Amino acid sequence: MDNIVQGFTQFREQVFPSQRSVYQRLVHDGQKPKALVISCADSRVVPELITQAGPGELFVTRNVGNIVPPFATMMGGVTAAVEYAVMALNVRDIVVCGHSDCGAMKGLLTPGLGEKMPSVAAWLRHGEAARKIVCDAYPDDIDDKRRLHALAMENVLVQLNHLRTHPAVASALASGQLTLHGWLFEIETGHLLVYDGEAGRFVVLAEEDELPVAEAAASPRLAAAGVGAPEARAAE
């Protein structure tokens, strides 16, 4: 705690004075974040640091394993954050960000976790589909490190699928107002692996690259397009 207090003192005396006008503007104008980032609570992964985002630029929610429970299964903090970000803050991008050496993913691969940490095990059941994919669809002879890496990537994709079940997200996607991103931050290399929805794989993001996306904002798409239009009624 001494380090935390010292850090705040340094912020208050050295950092805040030069950014006072920024914070005053954020209070006066309100927050207008560019994106919602759903990341792991791991202390080594700080979305604002990784992206070099300033105050007010990101709306961040963090939890064990960067989990997004399907909408119908749990009304909790993640559900509220998603709904608020999309409907109140009008974010146009949502990022699910996993990372290497993830303790939550290690937990998914640990038999009997529920006996020691039942709450953690229950929470991680939202990642069970990713574990099943890695155990059944990947080669049996891959080493533990590669298996863990693969699980972290598959978990990002599973959570993106869960995200699509949230009504606010489904509506924004259907109206072409939202883009989804799947990221994996490699702690040991500093690389950001980004899921390319068109290629169906993660790629290392390079400075000169255009940012691949998991699902891009597109023209509004309605399954019943044309229903109720004069020409549709005339055809009947």
Automatic annotation (TrEMBL):
Top-level class of the enzyme under EC nomenclature: lyase
EC numbers: 4.2.1.1
Cofactor(s) needed for function: Zn(2+)
Catalytic activity: hydrogencarbonate + H(+) = CO2 + H2O
InterPro entries assigned: Beta_CA_cladeB (IPR045066), Carbonic_anhydrase (IPR001765), Carbonic_anhydrase_CS (IPR015892), Carbonic_anhydrase_sf (IPR036874)
Keywords annotated in UniProt: Lyase, Metal-binding, Zinc
Matches recorded under Gene3D superfamilies: Carbonic anhydrase
Role description: Reversible hydration of carbon dioxide.
Sequence similarity: Belongs to the beta-class carbonic anhydrase family.
Name of the protein described by the UniProt record: Carbonic anhydrase
Organism of origin: Methylobacterium ajmalii
